[in-house]
């Protein structure tokens, strides 16, 4: 049987957050690297209130584009302000170089959110350092980060995995948002810029969903103590946001929150701690609250703790929004990260040959025929002196060995396609065919 933790705020009795809450909770959001800074910009644009924004970067140019009021240029000795070059070890070194600067900015915070796009240099390397500093200051430390899109390649995916392991060791709770899941659930016609903006928005929702639970007093209130109890030292965390409207708005909102397509491979099964924030535009019925809590807790541990709050937001216009944060899993001490995705080789379909092109297979039979000086081949290329095949040439897969010589062809030109490496950039010498299975058309210029 689970436990429900609630705090009733009675407006009619004249209680408010200032009277009952004491000193306000100080929340600081730190955007690490380019991805983290972009997410912070999105939060500022969305007017996320009652939090302090900080961004740090090794790239001075990128730092200058941030809207954050506090900008930290880190690692200037090691990077000269030019960025980490995609190397996490440089990002880590940069953060260590300016750890005193970071410490001073985090001092006084009750809770620190760390946002970053994992896989690059500055964000991947600096985020664990920032988390360690925040924990040393006694802050509740939560990281909300993204992992790379599949098309970004195996190197970034591998670096993201290694960075997540380090980050997991330093934070109280870690929420990982896989960009590839986003890619599977968005309009395929979105531009690259729009796709990354979507990723920023989801990352923003993770921070916003948790901070709103603390900073927005409601009719039924969850406070910082509830959040600390649910997230301190918990390791892996899962969050989801769902919206419902109409007759079944409560059921739909709860279901959508725990079946978020962004969390396709994550479930709240076995969670021991549930933070649930319910937002509605008007009075919500006790029956609806009960239905939401019942759906959310159905898969949780039998001895779960649930902390729930309810806030009225007129702008929802009859809808219900449910935010769920689940922690306390059996394997929370272990970080489970998907293996780096092996990006398949892209093979383009052969295109119809133009009249002025000839396939490589066909041209081989032409090129390797005995060629005499001044003899025209196909009316488009005039070869110079012939060069006999050698065992070394055959071993290398030499193309047109009997066609090229030390002399420049008396007429015409040959431009090697991608995949062929001319000897010392001298097109009068044989081009080396590196891949025996390579098949492509090449054009002989007029």
TrEMBL record:
One of its GO terms (cellular component) is cytoplasm. SMART domains: Tubulin, Tubulin_C. Gene3D superfamilies: Tubulin/FtsZ, C-terminal domain, Tubulin/FtsZ, GTPase domain. Residues 26-218 form the Tubulin/FtsZ GTPase domain. One of its GO terms (molecular function) is GTPase activity. The keyword GTP-binding applies. It is found in: Cytoplasm. Residues 220-338 form the Tubulin/FtsZ 2-layer sandwich domain. Keywords: Cell cycle, Cell division, Cytoplasm, GTP-binding, Nucleotide-binding, Septation. One of its GO terms (biological process) is division septum assembly. GTP binds at residues 34-38, 121-123, 152, 156, 200. InterPro entries: Cell_div_FtsZ, Cell_div_FtsZ_CS, FtsZ/CetZ, FtsZ_C, Tub_FtsZ_C, Tubulin/FtsZ-like_C, Tubulin/FtsZ_2-layer-sand-dom, Tubulin/FtsZ_GTPase_sf. It comes from the Bacteria. The keyword GTP-binding applies. Its main location: cytoplasm. Pfam families: FtsZ_C, Tubulin. Homodimer. Polymerizes to form a dynamic ring structure in a strictly GTP-dependent manner. Interacts directly with several other division proteins. Essential cell division protein that forms a contractile ring structure (Z ring) at the future cell division site. The regulation of the ring assembly controls the timing and the location of cell division. One of the functions of the FtsZ ring is to recruit other cell division proteins to the septum to produce a new cell wall between the dividing cells. Binds GTP and shows GTPase activity. Belongs to the FtsZ family. This is Cell division protein FtsZ. The gene is ftsZ.
């Amino acid at each position: 049987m689970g436990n429900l933790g609630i705090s009733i705020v009675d407006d009619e009795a004249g209680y408010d957050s200032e009277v009952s809450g004491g000193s306000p909770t100080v929340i600081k959001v730190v955007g690490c690297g380019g991805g983290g800074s972009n997410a912070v910009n999105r939060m500022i644009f969305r007017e996320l209130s009652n939090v302090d924004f900080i961004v740090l970067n090794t790239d001075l140019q990128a730092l200058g584009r941030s809207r954050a009021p506090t900008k930290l240029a880190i690692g200037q000795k090691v990077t000269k302000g030019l960025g980490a070059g995609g190397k996490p070890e440089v990002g880590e070194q940069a953060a260590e170089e300016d750890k005193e600067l970071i410490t001073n900015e985090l001092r006084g915070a009750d809770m620190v959110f760390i946002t970053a796009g994992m896989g690059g240099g500055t964000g991947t390397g600096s985020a664990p350092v920032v988390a360690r500093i925040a924990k040393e200051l006694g802050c509740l430390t939560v990281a909300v980060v993204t992992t790379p899109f599949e098309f970004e390649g195996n190197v970034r995916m591998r670096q993201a995995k290694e960075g997540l392991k380090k980050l997991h060791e330093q934070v109280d709770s870690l929420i990982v948002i896989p960009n590839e899941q986003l890619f599977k659930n968005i309009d395929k016609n979105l531009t690259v810029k729009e796709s990354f903006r979507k990723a920023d928005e989801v990352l923003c929702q993770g921070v916003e969903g948790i901070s709103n639970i603390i900073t927005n007093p409601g009719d039924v209130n969850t406070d910082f103590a509830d959040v600390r109890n649910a997230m301190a030292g918990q390791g892996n965390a899962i969050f989801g946001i769902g919206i419902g409207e109409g007759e079944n708005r409560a059921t739909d909102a709860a279901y959508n929150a725990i079946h978020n397509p962004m969390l396709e491979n994550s479930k709240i099964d076995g969670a021991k701690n549930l933070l649930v924030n319910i937002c509605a535009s008007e009075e919500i019925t006790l029956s609806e609250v009960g239905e939401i809590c019942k759906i959310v807790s159905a898969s949780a541990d039998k001895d779960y703790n649930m902390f729930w709050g309810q806030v009225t937001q007129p702008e929802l216009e009859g809808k219900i929004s449910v935010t769920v944060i689940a922690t306390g899993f059996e394997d929370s001490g272990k970080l489970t990260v998907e293996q780096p995705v092996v990006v398949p080789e892209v093979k383009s379909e052969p295109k119809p040959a133009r009249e002025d092109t000839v396939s490589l297979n066909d041209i081989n039979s032409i090129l390797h025929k005995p060629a005499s000086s001044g003899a025209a081949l196909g009316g488009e290329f005039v070869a110079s002196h012939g060069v006999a095949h050698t065992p070394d040439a055959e071993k290398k897969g030499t193309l047109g060995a009997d066609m090229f010589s030390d002399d420049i062809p008396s007429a015409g030109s040959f431009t090697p396609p991608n995949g062929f490496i001319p000897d010392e950039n001298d097109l009068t010498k044989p081009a080396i065919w590196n891949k025996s299975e390579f098949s492509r058309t090449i054009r002989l210029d007029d």
